Amino acid sequence: MLVSDFDFELPAERIALRPVSPRDSARMLEVRDSGLADLVMRDLPARLQPGDVLVVNDTRVIPAQFRGRRGEATVGVTLHKREGAARWWAFVKNVRRLAVADRVDFGSGLFGVVEEMGAEGAVLWRFEADNGVEAAMMAAGVMPLPPYIASKRAVDDRDAEDYQTLHAAKDGAVAAPTAGLHFTPELWAALAARGVGREVVTLHVGAGTFLPVKAERTEDHVMHSEWGEVPGDVAARLNAARAAGGRVVAVGTTSLRVLESAVEGGRIGAFSGDTAIFITPGYRFGAVDGLVTNFHLPKSTLFMLVSALMSTEVMRVAYAHAIEHGYRFYSYGDGSLLLP
């Protein structure tokens, strides 16, 4: 397939720079094969059935962007994937100024040593600090807002809270699982009263989620891997829910991708490890029956994913409706409920 098949025009004013408050007052576009419905996130319980299960991602965003100096040279670093206690792959601006064994001062007592040079500006770092690497990284780093927000305003203290979900528990993401941003304790209480269950998986979202698809054909695009986990007891409960007639509805594309990575023999199994699953139209879903998700970028792997779930034609109609009716797009934007 051509990547251009997933292109569309998005007016700049549709890009949300701040989330709404309260979080569950965001708008929600319900998308079914039978049509569209304009709702808000608080309507979610009424659109699901008792016995359905929502699956959230409990990853927590870390301050993953750094500015460092080596002599007179300045480098910008965005962490991508953890490889050990103090080792990370990262995307680097001004990467040509670096070489293996270079040592960069990131401030706050944090230093990074270049261990390996990868493709497309990727660098494997070993971080060092006298008083603990994790604490130094937290002090030196800033929240990694997506480029479409960070290019229009500075990161500030509000983002430290706004860019974390209610479910965030395990440090490791460098981008938020943004569909989860819409959930509040009040919304979860209403979902529980409706008889909708909740399960938790992990996918540590990498910075590759922001990278544009440069290939002309989807078959030529290479996904960056991310670490995820579906515990065995969670898999068993999800299989039981489906066997009883309930639907598994992923909260966000990250939850969906790790669930689909765990499918084996037509059932969801335990999973722990890296996944680079790339879902495009024609993919046969084995784990999920629906998806709560935000509105995605043109020609992005995430718009390809939702097109695989609902069909490209249905999603083109849905996105045209969302643009015409003033929905807010991307990480801090509104949500959608996709039920094929």
Automatic annotation (TrEMBL):
Biological process terms in GO annotation: tRNA queuosine(34) biosynthetic process
Keyword Glycosyltransferase assigned: yes
UniProt superkingdom: Bacteria
Gene3D superfamilies reported in the protein's UniProt record: QueA-like (2.40.10.240)
Reaction catalysed by this enzyme: 7-aminomethyl-7-carbaguanosine(34) in tRNA + S-adenosyl-L-methionine = epoxyqueuosine(34) in tRNA + adenine + L-methionine + 2 H(+)
Ranges that cross the membrane: none
Pathway per the UniProt entry: tRNA modification; tRNA-queuosine biosynthesis
GO annotations of cellular component type: cytoplasm
Cell location: Cytoplasm
UniProt key word S-adenosyl-L-methionine: yes
Major localisation: cytoplasm
UniProt EC number: 2.4.99.17
UniProt keyword annotations, A-Z: Cytoplasm, Glycosyltransferase, Isomerase, Queuosine biosynthesis, S-adenosyl-L-methionine, Transferase
Top EC class of this enzyme: transferase
UniProt GO MF annotations: S-adenosylmethionine:tRNA ribosyltransferase-isomerase activity
Family matches, as SUPFAM superfamilies: QueA-like (SSF111337)
UniProt record similarity statement: Belongs to the QueA family.
Alphabetized HAMAP family for the sequence: QueA
Subunit relationships: Monomer.
Xref: PANTHER family: S-ADENOSYLMETHIONINE:TRNA RIBOSYLTRANSFERASE-ISOMERASE (PTHR30307)
Role description: Transfers and isomerizes the ribose moiety from AdoMet to the 7-aminomethyl group of 7-deazaguanine (preQ1-tRNA) to give epoxyqueuosine (oQ-tRNA).
Protein name: S-adenosylmethionine:tRNA ribosyltransferase-isomerase
Lineage of the organism: Bacteria, Pseudomonadati, Pseudomonadota, Alphaproteobacteria, Sphingomonadales
